[in-house]
């Protein structure tokens, strides 16, 4: 019919980005369709909820820091249960000569939701006189979990559900010196942030005044920025304006100044978690006393799924691409795929994580 055909774009001049004739994406955008009756699409949310309630969730957290910073107590405070029993310090006995990682797994249930929680502690980190390469066992453990997941994933016949032992978050405990990050902290965090999500915290923050706490936080932020250390949440992962607004507030407060306690005390007729001193009760969930609620909300209430998504889509993907590039897949019969033994990567090579780190530096992330 005359008048219905569209005039083609003129090839004589390049199209502007906002022009109607600008290149279109390869996949067509779905057009909205006006509904004239109830269908029940939102019921899929109930289906997902029911399925998730049946299968439960997995969350793996690693705590790193020197002895005596309250790592075990902090984990117990986060989940309000005896997740980890701290071992008594033998002041007379010799310190362990090597770093020994210890993991414990518990199933926690709250209001019908099951969480399989795995906590990995790193006793002995930074306790030696010579701490050269003391981070190697930690980085090797993280990569070993990626390798275990990859070995299950490349099988032609694989499990319906691959057990996820990958570390989703590493909480790094900074000693409350009030000055700056130690060279050990900087060197370790440079390597750690390339392979796992990292959230630094100021341990035992009740030993600092409010002014000392803010000055220490500012100095740590400067040390992280000047050394190219990107802690969670990174700006490049903000998906929309709401994410950016929320994460900007979090980034301003990192590292969180935290205090751990697993005992309740009576304060104004209420039972509160806190530490009792001769000056009074330090309430761990009181923002006027410490920033533990911010850490809890980040790890559990607002960003737990995002931590797992970034672990899978970024850090594990970096490892997977690296391993598949360095190995030739050799098929040996039905259901078997062989990968060459992994090389120990104590520092990341040229990988996607380094590329987005460089992009972040250029964009001011």
From TrEMBL:
Annotated region Disordered: the residues are 340-365
Q: Name one Pfam family in it.
A: Septin
The biological processes this protein is annotated with in GO are:
cell division
Gene3D superfamilies, A to Z = P-loop containing nucleotide triphosphate hydrolases
* Comp. bias (Polar residues): 340-354
What PROSITE patterns is this protein classified in?
A: G_SEPTIN (PS51719)
Q: What is its main location?
A: cytoplasm
Q: Which SUPFAM superfamilies match?
A: P-loop containing nucleoside triphosphate hydrolases
Subcellular location field: Cytoplasm, Cytoskeleton
Q: Which residues form the Septin-type G domain?
A: 55-326
One GO CC term, this protein: perinuclear region of cytoplasm
What terms describe the molecular function in GO for this protein? GTP binding; protein homodimerization activity
Q: Which UniProt keywords apply?
A: Cell cycle, Cell division, Cytoplasm, Cytoskeleton, GTP-binding, Nucleotide-binding
Extract the InterPro entries matched here: G_SEPTIN_dom, P-loop_NTPase, Septin
Q: Bias category Basic and acidic residues: which stretches? A: 356-365
Quote the PANTHER family the UniProt record gives. Answer: SEPTIN
**Subunit and interaction comment:** Septins polymerize into heterooligomeric protein complexes that form filaments.
Q: What does this chain do?
A: Filament-forming cytoskeletal GTPase.
Q: Indicate the family of this protein.
A: Belongs to the TRAFAC class TrmE-Era-EngA-EngB-Septin-like GTPase superfamily. Septin GTPase family.
Protein name (record): Septin
């Amino acid at each position: 019919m005359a008048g219905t055909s569209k005039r083609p774009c003129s090839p004589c001049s390049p199209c502007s980005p906002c022009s109607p004739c600008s290149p279109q994406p390869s996949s067509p955008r779905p057009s909205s369709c006006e509904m004239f009756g109830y269908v029940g699409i939102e019921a899929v949310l109930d289906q997902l909820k029911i399925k998730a309630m049946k299968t439960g969730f997995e969350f793996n957290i690693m705590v790193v820091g020197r002895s005596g910073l309250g790592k075990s107590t902090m984990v117990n405070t986060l989940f309000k249960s005896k997740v980890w029993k701290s071992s008594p310090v033998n002041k007379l006995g010799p310190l362990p000569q090597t770093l020994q990682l210890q993991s414990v797994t518990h199933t926690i249930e709250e209001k019908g939701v099951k969480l399989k929680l795995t906590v990995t502690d790193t006793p002995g980190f930074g306790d030696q006189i010579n701490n050269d390469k003391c981070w190697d066992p930690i980085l090797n453990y993280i990569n070993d979990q990626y390798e275990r997941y990859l070995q299950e994933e490349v099988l032609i016949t694989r499990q319906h559900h691959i057990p996820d032992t990958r570390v989703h978050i590493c909480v790094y405990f900074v000693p409350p010196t009030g000055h700056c990050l130690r060279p050990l902290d900087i060197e370790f965090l440079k390597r750690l942030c390339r392979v796992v999500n990292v959230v630094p915290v100021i341990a035992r923050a009740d030993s600092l005044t409010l002014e000392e706490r803010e000055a220490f936080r500012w100095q740590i932020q400067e040390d992280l920025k000047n050394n190219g250390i990107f802690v969670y949440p990174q700006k490049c992962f903000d998906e929309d304006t709401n994410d950016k607004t929320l994460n900007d507030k979090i980034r301003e407060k990192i590292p969180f100044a935290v205090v751990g306690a697993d005992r309740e005390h009576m304060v104004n007729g209420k039972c509160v978690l806190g530490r009792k001193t001769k000056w009074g009760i330090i309430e761990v969930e009181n923002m006027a006393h410490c920033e533990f609620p911010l850490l809890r909300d980040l790890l559990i209430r607002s960003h737990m799924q995002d931590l797992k998504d970034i672990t899978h889509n970024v850090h594990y993907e970096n490892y997977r691409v690296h391993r598949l590039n360095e190995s030739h897949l050799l098929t040996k019969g039905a259901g078997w795929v062989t990968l060459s033994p992994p090389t120990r990567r104590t520092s990341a090579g040229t990988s996607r994580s380094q590329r987005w780190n460089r992009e972040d530096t250029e964009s001011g992330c």
